[in-house]
Amino acid sequence: MIDVQRLRVLRTVAEHGSFNRAAAALRLTPSAVSQQVAALERSLGAQVVARSTRGVTLTPAGRIMVGAAESVAAELVHAQRQVDRLGTGRTQITIATFTSGGRLLLPRALTHLATAHPGTVVHVREAEPEDSLPLVRQGAVDLALAYHFDGPLPGRLGPTSSLVWTPLFDDPLHVVLPDAHPLAGRESLDIAELAAEPWVLGCLKTEAYLRRYAERAGFDPEVRSTTTDYFFARSLVAAGLGISLIPSIAQTPPVAGVRTVPVVPPAPTRHVGVATIHRRGLPQVVTMVGALQRQAAVLDRTDPHPTA
Fold this sequence. Notes:
The chain is an alpha/beta fold. About 45% of the residues lie in helices and about 20% in strands. The protein has helices spanning about 5-15, 20-25, 30-45, 60-90, 100-115, 130-140, 205-215, 230-240, 285-300, and strands at about 50, 55-60, 90-95, 120-125, 145-150, 165-180, 200, 220-225, 245, 260, 270-275.
């Protein structure tokens, strides 16, 4: 029999990357954490972590067990909610979303949910993917509208993960320039053409992404301002502080004095999707995923992102 507490300890070790940090999070001693992991390994007959002076990493068996630990934790939360529902007679679901995606997709999807499941109590939490996906794994939220850039899917999504990722649409990043900029009338731009430009960025992850593309093009971008709001970033572009790289769905509402120009392929792109728990059959969650897919399909058939 696998001990649930030992699974919880392993999951915390995986999240923090070391026995010491996991011990602090669990309010245990590092020795106690190490003993719990060792006991789990003895019961399984397999090593779950590889220990080194730099910390610990999961073995293939460890990844399987962390996926199981996430599923167990989420199911316990789900069971508690079902018990609570017996007393109140109402179903509650919690949705996490990043700002621009939520603004574009959630309102109509929530209207559909209210029609299909009247009386459902909905809670919405604003969160970036690095925060929202762990909340889904832990059962704290029922689904997360999220995104990832080129490369692996966010979090530990894969064959042993408790998460299911449903792709919705691709969201290319466009260059935003002042109206009077010499390149503002172009139909498309290569990042390499912007090597001498100062930059204003709307989020830290976009800066990391820009620097990666700029390195490929052979230059180091001069970033003059970094904000956490794409509307503010576009306003600074309109004021002449620099140019910006902004996702397509974050181009609304319009800002006067700027032009949006696509990047020549392969353009930097965010991949938007929804994360849910594997095998979770709550009808409201299934309804929301379907409604978000329909909204994404409508988005693909229209052009809600003006270039001016």
